[in-house]
Description:
By secondary structure, the protein is an alpha+beta fold. Helices cover 30% and strands 15% of the residues. The protein is globular, with a radius of gyration of 17 Å.
Amino acid sequence: MLYAMLAYHVETEVTSWSPEEDAALMSELLAVHERLNAKKVLGPAARLGGTAEARTLRGPGAGMVIDGPFAETKEQLLGLYVLNCADEEEAIAIARDLRRVNPSAVYEIRPIRLYLPGEALPETTSEPGQG
């Protein structure tokens, strides 16, 4: 069974770290990643850019792009995409294309600061409790 693990943190704390503090943490995290890769349990990992760089597409029709990661409390994160786009406009265009077929979805678009591909993992179609 595949699981998505989402990392939450206080953004102002993370951005207050010196380059040395950040590098030390990343070194420790990469050691964990290496252990997980050796066990073949780690897929892609990404460090997102700041929330000030985030955009959210919501609303009827083509939707409206607004600054920031604005989820309504009634909404839950149910999936994610990792895209390789030339710029933010291309990412927004892709979000609009996805939304054409899933009009009730809201898409947050945020740059990835660090992407670690990890090992290829098997596809899963199992629902929780069935795999």
